[in-house]
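Chain A, query sequence.
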Amino acid sequence: MKKIVLSIIIVTYNNEKEIISCLSSLPWHTVPMEILLIDNNSKDRTKERIQNFSHRLPEFPATTLWNNTNRGYAMGVNQGLSLSRGDYVLLLGPDTKILPGALETMMNFLKTHPEAGMVAPQLVSAKGEILHSCRRFPTYKDVLIELTGLPRLFPSVFLSRWKMADFNHKEEREVDQPEATCLMTHRKALDDVGFMDEQFTMFFNDVDWCRRFWLKGWKVFFFPIAQIEHQKGASVYANQIPMIWKSHQGFYRYFQKYSASSFKKIINYGLGFILIVVAAYRSFAALLKK
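Chain A, predicted structure.
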């Protein structure tokens, strides 16, 4: 049996418009890989598009799982991780396009940096614009400032520490947490850290995962030489209101998990109330726009 070097995990939900572009961009003939496609009960033609693609490509090295319910992103990833066989494992969003040499470059980075547990590429738009994709681990202060909307209203005054507004995303560096649109790890680090925490169904699973890598002594790197094209928000914007509530839920659960003291847990209850109020306001505003 041919040795699998790279396992690529793609979790889909209503991605009929993006998935074929993503699959077509993979380096089928240059990297020994397997594709683990997990669909969370899409209601559009995602399944049909994937099946048609596999019929046109007989050597399509894919395992597909068709969940009969939407199990969330973290559980979908974990389904893929449990089946993965590669020395390297890549989490890849279905709304991406791999640019030439990106995956090979990322694997070589991990191979030549034994302290690295994870590496993320530079994300760019279809027009070639750099997309900011790295963040610091959030603090209570970060959350409160973000919820006021001040960094969006006055970006030159209220630089977002959490969203790394001070980083141009052009240089290689260690980062707390890149987004899960494209994250590559290797088998030794994965075995050490473990799978995603499924309490973070949609949001903050990547934040929690990266934090656990750091806590285990593995560094996380941003590596801009590798580039991935990303259609930002393609999945999220299609289900905006449920995603608003899930993102606020993720915030709350993250602080609950990493707040050991009784005092901080009391603060979390107040934060939870604020998150509910802001989520309700944002949902109402989204409805008005529709």
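Residues 6-137+165-233 form a domain with the Spore Coat Polysaccharide Biosynthesis Protein SpsA; Chain A fold (CATH 3.90.550.10). The chain has ten helices and twelve strands.
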